Each structure stands twice: as C-alpha cells, then as structure tokens.
Amino acid sequence: MDYPVYNIFSRNYSRVMFGLCVLFTGIILALLVLVTGYLISIGAHSLSIDFFTRLPIPQGMEGYPGGMKNALVGTVVLIALASSVGIPIGMLTGIYLSEYSANSFLAGPTRFICDVLTGVPSIVVGILGYELVVRPIGHFNGYAGGLALAFIMVPIVARTTEEMLRLVPNSYREASIALGATKARTILKVVLPAATGSVITGIMLAIARVAGETAPLLFTTLGSRLLVYNPDDPFPSLTQQIYDYATKPDPAQQKLAWSGILVLISLIFVLNVGIRYFARSIQSMTA
Amino acid sequence: MSGPLVGPASEYVSASRSEMTDRGSLIRSGGRFGADTILSLLTAGAAFIVMLMLAALVAVLAHASLPAIHEFGWSFLVSSEWRPNALEVPKTDANGNVIIEDGETVTQTIPPSFGALPVIYGTAISSGLAIIFAVPLSFGAALFLVRIAPKVMKGPVSFLIEFLAAIPSIAYGMWGLFILAPFLQRHLESWLGHVYAAAGRPRVLHWLFQETSLLPTGEKLVRDLPLSGRDMFSGGLVLAVMIIPIITAIARDVLKSVPRAQIEGTIALGATWWQTSKEMLRYSRAGLFGAVMLGLARAAGETMAVTMVIGNNNQIRASLFAPAQTMSSLLANEFAEASTDIHRASLSEVALILLVMSLLFNIVARYLVVGKGSRTAAAH
Questions:
Q1: Which residue among B65, B135, B182, B184 is least enclosed by CB atoms within 10 Å?
Q2: Does the structure show a pLDDT above 80 at A196?
Q3: Does B296 contact A at CB distance below 8 Å?
Q4: B87 - beta bridge partners?
Q5: What percent of chain A has pLDDT over 90?
Q6: B147 to chain A: which residues are within 8 Å by CB?
Q7: CB–CB of B72/A131 below 8 Å?
Q8: pLDDT tens for residues A70-105?
C-alpha cells in the first residue's frame, strides 16, 4: 500500500475533502428542509377541518371536493387488518429467533429471509395479494390489501422483536429458571415484559411503514370514494386517495392530496418520534 | 512495515455473529404437552410461515407469469415492443405495396406483443442515476457523522436523516411532481433547451433533445422532446433523495465499526485527515458496497415516487430528458387495468424479474453487511 506522505499537496487535498464532507452533509440537510418544508407548508395551507369530517364530493356538486374521511377510516381499518395478522406472526417469529434458535436449523435461514423480505419491492407484494385473494374472490377488496400490508409488516416486526428480546439480560432468564419457571413462563412473564417498551416501538415503526404504503394497495383494495367499513368491498385508503387526487388536473383535488400528505407525514412523525420517547420512558420505569 | 495494514474486511463484519449466543439453551423445557410445547410449536410455526412467505411470493409470481413465459420465451427480455392491444394494419405484398381487393384495403391483425427491455432499461438507468447522485453525498455525510460532527450534532443530524427515510414514497412523489419537476422544467431544462437552440441545434446533441419514433406505417418521426421536467432525469433525482438516508445510515454504522487501532495506526504514520478517512473507507469497503447494493435494491423497487415523475413512456430513449418507464411504474400504471390474460401475465413476469433482481441485490448486500445494516434497513 502507499505510505501516507505528509506534504503540502496531501494536506490541502485533505482540507478539500474535509470541506466536501461538510458540504455534502449540508446538501443532504438542505434537501431535508426542501422536502419536508414544502410538504408541510403547502399541506398546512391546504388543510381544513373538512378534510377530516367530509366524504369526497363529486365535481359539480355542492361542497366539492369534500374531504377524505373515508380514506382515514379506510387506512385505520387496513392497518387494523394488517396488524391482526402481521403482528402475531411477526412477534412469534421474533420470539423464536431470539429464544428458540438454539440448535435449530430453521433459525439462520429464517433470519436471513426476514432481512431479504424487508427488501422486496412493495408493488410485488401487491401482485401477490391480487393473485392470492382478489383473483379467487373475483373482485378487488380490503382483505387483499390488509394481507399485502401484513406481508410487509411480518419481517419488520420479527426482526425488531428479536433484537429487542436479545437486549434483555440473560440473568433475567436465569433467575426465572432458578425459581423453577418453565421456558414458556419465562418468555411470557419475564422476557417479554422486560422488553415491552421496545417491542411496542418496533410494532409502531412497522405500522408507520405500512401506513405510508401505496403500491401494494393499487391492485388489491383498488380504492373507493365511499365510506366503507366492510373489507369485502373495494376499499379506500389515505395513500391511494392521495395518489388519485395528486394525478388529477384539478387544483381543488390536488389541495386535498397535499392535506393528505401532511396528515400522513404527521402520523408517521408521531409514530417515529413520540413512540420512541414513550418507549424509553416505559423502559426506564420498569427497569 | 510490510504486509497489509488491515485484515479482510469480512473479519470484523462477521464478528458480530459470535455475539449472538443463544439464550434459549439455558432454559430447560417443561412438560410434554404444556404451555412450553405449545409456545415452541407456535413460534416455530410462525418462523416456518415466514419462510413460506418468500416461497409463496416466488411461486405465485412464477405461476402467474407462465402464460407470458410460454408465449414469448426469452425474447420477452430483449423485445422492446409493449403493445397490449391487437393492431390492425394494411396488408402489404412482397414489394411493400398495400394490397387492395375489391376496392378495399386488406387488413391483417397483429397480436398484442410484450417485451420488457424498455422497463429494464428504465429501471437500470434511473437507479444508476440515483446511485451516482446519492453515493458521494451519503459517504460524505457518513464520514461527517463519524469523524467530524461534534457530539451534540451527531444525534439530531442522524435523526433527521433517518426521518428522511421514514417519509413515505407517495410524499416524495408529490414533492417530485409538484416541486421538483416544475423546477427542473423551468430552470434547468428550459435553459438547456435555449443553449441548444442558441448553438444552432448541433447534430451531436440531437440524441439529447430529440426523439425518433417509428410509426406503424414504417415512417420515422423526429421531433423535439417536450422537456416537461417529468423524465428519466427527475426520476433519478427523486430516487437519489430517497436512498440517501438508507446509504448514509448504513455507511455510518459500517464506518463507525472500523477499529480504533486502525485509525490510530494511520495517524501515527502521519496521515492527513483524508488519508485516514480513505483508509477507513478502504477497510470497510465490503460493508460500504453492501450499503450501495441496498440503496440500489430500494431504488429499483421504488414505485410511487418514480411513477409520478418519470413520465411513463414505455420506450427506450437515449436522452435523460425523455420520459421513461421503470418496471415498478409500469406495474403501477397498467396492472389494475389489464384486461387480457396475456397482458396480466406479462406484467406478472415483469414483477417476477423485479423480484428476482431485488432478491439478488438484497442477498449480496446482506452477505456483505451481515448484521450491521440489517437493523437500519428493517426499521425503514
């Protein structure tokens, strides 16, 4: 290898590169400000109470363009659907990876597959939902979307649960065993409670991730302008309605899309930041 | 000093594996049919479901694309024609003259035809552009975070960059569509267009500002590109903004794990700041390459933002300022409306190609980064 030579040239070169690193960080932070600044300021200008309280109103009718109440309800229902499937499977997998992976031929591949699954393009998952649910049933429906979102949640929840359980000190487990508890009891009553805060954080991050997903819903739920509660019908969602309105030429609908973006980003911000602190405080209380 | 200063980079990245000692082994199992058995079966079952998920994904997509694979075979990968509808054209004889019988032109129907080359090209170029923009910025920022940033700055800057990663694709799409594309159109592209016109529209630049399309009649149509700001270039830019946080976060973690002795060694030899940094980059090259691969995988699979800014034109154009189409944007645009089985099967085959490609990228990346970046990636 080259020996580092201390001379004027390399010193100045070093200064230039140092400056570039600072500059590049500055550019990234500027990009952050440019992106979030525009999204938040335009969103804030567009947002009105109608967004939360009214349903979409067709063009030419009184009150056009209405709001996105149906989409908000739809997103909540979809997340609930996805969570009810994705969180149990994800958590159980995480428990398996952390607590049962001894002498298991399944653990290594499972861990690897979880990591690989987090990188699968979400639109591909949408096609899976279409082929597995929409095609057999014969029409677009909410279940397919929920399933697609659950698919995205599982690996995230599994890996975060595993990592959080690994952080629980081994002495906890040893103490529990020493007191005569079985393995299941140890996991359910000692290990999981000790990691509750951080496991919840992982779940919230997974929810934040799927709340912003659009691509897997395009050909599973299809979207709807109606207030639908039954997931057997084509189902509305916030992200999809934003996409729909954003690509329409009408400024009134684009405005709704901007409001939707603001609501979505706020939700994700709250899930990301708020829960992080919430989890930390729970943990410090229990520890 | 002879011999290399550093060991193989894989040595330190895989070291974290050995920390993964197993807690479960300390605990003895209880009764045969008790809660223990149930919980262990449940968890193993869940782990098995996860493995099934991947298998199902590949199997279902492969099954769905079978008709297209049968119909087009390998030519699907190299054909650049994407025509979901049958085409009626006048029949021509051997001399190229239109055949007329009983005073009417005889028509023939050309069946629909599908080829994935334009979208493979679109995905490759847009992701490549994104990597070119994002990697220097991300590595610079990662070095900044590891070596320059004062302690008080590290936390907030890291958090901001990670928040950038949590913003959903659709939000970047809105930003790209309403802020970036108009900006590029009004400033960069119109300026370039003026320069082009002022220079007398030189022949050597035709590829950048003009497009040639082949009409069904066989004629060539040359016209100026619209320079609308919704093109390959802005698609690449939006993708770059989206993958910067991922590459930065992983590169930061990888650089952070360069052993202290390594850094001190170079400093002791009289290295400048940059020479030390270069050594750090060299030392962690495997992990950094993994970070780039993860960024590439994300860029290639990204859908909404690209669909909204890339212009959605399913043709290969040499110019970066021409509208294009990626695999994912093609799926987003056409899958829900595909009416024929062969159209849907072709789209499924595009999805299969996308899946296999991203699996490959991910496997290579995970292999290189091992446990290091996986958590960051999982959180996003």
A1: B182
A2: yes
A3: no
A4: B110
A5: 50
A6: 21
A7: no
A8: 999 999 999 999 999 999 999 999 999 999 887 778
Interface of B with A in 326-355 (CB under 8 A): 328, 331-332, 335-336, 347-348, 351, 354-355
Task: Give the DSSP letter string of B107-149.
Answer: EEEEPPEE--HHHHHHHHHHHHHHHHHHHHHHHHHHHIIIIIS
**What are the tokens at A164?**
């959080």
Nearest to A173 among B27, B51, B178 (CB): B27
Structural tokens at position A117: 């699954």
Within 10 Å of residue A34's Cβ, how many Cβ atoms?
15
Q: Which residues contact A155 (CB under 8 A, 6 or more apart)?
A: A90, A113, A114, A115, A117, A118, B50, B378
B47–A107: do the CB atoms touch at under 8 Å? yes
Residue B105, CA atoms < 13 Å, CB-side half-sphere? 10
Low-confidence residues of chain B, pLDDT below 50?
Answer: 1-31, 372-380
Contact A115 B378 (CB under 8 A): yes
Tell me if A123 and B308 make a contact (CB, 8 A cut-off).
no
- Distance between CA B98 and CA B151 in Å, rounded? 78
Return the residue in A47, A68, A100 with the most chain B beta carbons within 10 A, the one to mutate for interface testing: A100
Cis peptide upstream of residue A65 (ω within 30 degrees of 0): yes
pLDDT (tens digit per residue) in A115-161 = 899 889 999 999 999 999 999 998 899 999 999 999 999 999 999 89
